[in-house]
Amino acid sequence: MAAYIKSILVGTWSLIAGLAITLRFVFKPVVTCQYPHAVPKIPDRYRGHIDFVYDPATCSHKCIVCGMCQKTCPSGCISLEGEKLEGAKKKTLSVYQLNFTTCSLCGLCVEACPTGALTFSKEYNLAGFDEKEYHFDLIKRLQERP
Amino acid sequence: MLSYLNYLNDTMPCLMAILRLIVCIVCILAFVGLNAAYLVWLERKLAGRIQRRIGPKEVGPFGLLQPLADGIKLMTKQLFLPDGIDRILYLLAPMLVMTTAFMCFVTIPFGEGLVARELDLGLLAIFAFASINVLGLLLGAWASRNKYSMISSARVVSQNVAYEIPMLLVVASLLMVTGTLNLHDIVAEQAGGFWNWNVLRLNASPLMPVAFLIFFVCTLAETNRTPFDLAEAESELVAGSFTEYGSMGFGLFFMGEYANMVVGSTLISILFLGGWNCPFGIFPGPHWLFLKLYALISTVMWIRWTFPRTTFYGLLNLSWKVLIPIALVNLLITGALVKVF
Fold first, then answer.
1. Domain ranges for chain B
2. pLDDT over threshold 70, residue B2
3. DSSP string, B147-212
4. What residues in chain B have their Cβ under 8 A from chain A's Cβ atoms?
5. CATH, residue A92
6. The domain containing residue A101 runs over which residues?
7. Ranges under pLDDT 50 in chain A
8. Structural domain contains residue A56
9. Do B305 and A18 touch (CB under 8 A)?
10. pTM
11. Which of B24, B83, B219, B340 lies at a CB distance of 3.0 to 4.6 Å from B116, suitable for a disulfide?
12. Which of A19, A30, A31 lies at the smallest CB-CB distance from B306?
């Protein structure tokens, strides 16, 4: 009998304790971000797909077409081509394609780049109807960047 | 205006009776409809706050037009009849649930004279109508020929049978104290201050607060609210009795559920918390009833977003092993005290 009454009292007390917890939560500040209206701050080390670093000295990218990124990429999603312009000693980059559908965002290309031409973009709003929308032309992206 | 109404009442009693009927029906329909719509909004807001979210906010200011949008969505959906159902019962069941919920409001007084039809057996009428609600759920589940509905209806019936007993035992002990089934008289007896409310009438029975708690728990179970929402256990039974319902069929079940919640909370306020009496004996009026009513409903929602669902054994054990014995002891003590004093 004593155990029965004790179980009822302990049970009732646990219910009240639970209610007190949720009541406290009612008055705590809201933690959600109202996404389309407010965008969360993206951390500095966020890893989006790769992008060229803008070089103010040349007003372009820093790529020297060494092909390190292409070689080191475990998914083989980078393809680049360079051409020798007349009178120039070194190659100039003409095509830099990233196939983002197979990229695993490992960042080995960024580490391998000898000139630091690559970085991670902060883009996360990626949705599309077609696979081709994820074949990024990084040169074009750099030119279109404000 | 009032004298003119009195004049009309004397000259054309039949017309006035019909007018009164129409006004009452419209008021009850509007009250139930608005309550169902905005209690859903309130529940979603409260759930949001408890989970540290905002809740609905896009449709209208503070999401206040959300119930309207939901209603339009439900009403414009196709009324789909699945194969192999019992068509008559399938269509009848939601209406049965809703109608009985409406009928409960007929005898509930919201203030001095603010009642559609005052009955001497008002309390009994409410319990009678409220128990038909279970029949509606059972018929709907049976008619839709779905195993989840069937399991759910079996649960609903045994749950309601189990909880009707302690509830009525508590009410019986309360009626020994009040001596009347007329809700208006029950409220009138509690006039004055909160120390006159039935929940604190310790001289009538020292177990009165316990009786109030039992009645509250039973109301939760009777209206199938969490933690006793085994009828609609969405993680086990899809949507319980309403699994095969869409469109306004589901809408009616849903509105019926909220209407029953309002009936239950109103009944608690009237029976235990002094109805439309002010806690301090000043300015009694319907606003006090509504205040208590919505405070109780918020508590019910608060409970829903705090506790997980019980098991079915836990549910039945609570009723048969805890609530019924305590209610019986309460009945004995109250009876003895009424006899002695």
1. 1-76, 77-340
2. no
3. HHHHHHHHHHHHHHHHHHHHHHHHHHHHHHHH----HHHHHHHT-SSGGGSGGG-TTT-TTHHHHH
4. 46, 49-54, 57, 302-303, 305-307, 322
5. 3.30.70.3270
6. 50-144
7. none
8. yes
9. no
10. 0.80
11. B24
12. A19
